[in-house]
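Design job #97: recover the sequence.
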């Protein structure tokens, strides 16, 4: 698994460059909207770094050492003051009620226990704080879900653990967040398959 993780981290920015221009508006709607003391979970190589324009303080959490190496390099060359923490979203090493904003982009598909991560985010948010998310999700149509079901095992292998068919919105709505606002849409990546996505926010 470690070699595949190294490989995924090594090629992530290049692979992502195929869709990055389409993803930028959603980085702006999540990282770009965060304010105050901000935590990003699963920062990867730091693709959201330029979009945290209103954060008072920024903590970037990443469990994977190969991603972390790239993240540290990007943060260092940005000259921004960022706290980088090596940890998992399932067990956030922070006290209750300490962040104004928490951001995930393309992460909840990869975590081991998505319910636990979403409830940990709720725990560390201050009352009134906001969780901003941009994720790909389970398809609405039966045909889409069948396709996701077929592709899921191969996709998980190729991406070191990304799940195609998670009901992220259902899980957020099953946690005591208030004011859940979201748009769902299909991201067209230039191939005949479109990818169901969600972008939104939820308050504590
Ligand atoms: C597809 S990448 C997304 C990176 C970045 N957020 C972006 O938008 O480009 C998913 C990231 O989630 C991280 N990740 C995987 N499992 C995690 C977990 N349990 N807790 C926190 N991050 C995790 C991976 O190491 C990887 O860096």
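Job complete. Output follows.
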């Amino acid at each position: 698994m470690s070699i595949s993780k190294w490989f995924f981290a090594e090629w992530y920015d290049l692979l992502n460059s195929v869709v990055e221009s389409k993803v930028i508006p959603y980085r702006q709607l999540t990282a770009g909207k965060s304010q105050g003391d901000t935590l990003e979970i699963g920062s990867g190589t730091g693709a959201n770094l330029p979009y945290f324009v209103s954060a008072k303080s920024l903590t970037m959490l990443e469990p994977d050492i190969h991603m972390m190496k790239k993240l540290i390099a990007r943060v260092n060359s940005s000259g921004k003051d960022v706290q980088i923490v090596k940890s998992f979203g399932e067990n956030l090493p922070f006290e209750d009620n300490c962040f104004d904003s928490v951001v995930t982009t393309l992460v909840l598909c990869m975590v081991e226990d998505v319910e636990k991560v979403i409830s940990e985010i709720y725990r560390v948010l201050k009352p009134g704080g906001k969780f901003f998310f941009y994720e790909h999700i389970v398809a609405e149509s039966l045909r889409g879900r069948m396709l996701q079901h077929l592709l899921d095992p191969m996709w998980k292998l190729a991406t070191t653990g990304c799940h195609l068919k998670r009901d992220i919105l259902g899980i957020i709505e099953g946690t005591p967040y208030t004011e859940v606002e979201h748009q769902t849409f299909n991201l067209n990546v230039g191939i005949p398959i479109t990818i169901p996505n969600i972008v939104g926010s939820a308050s504590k």
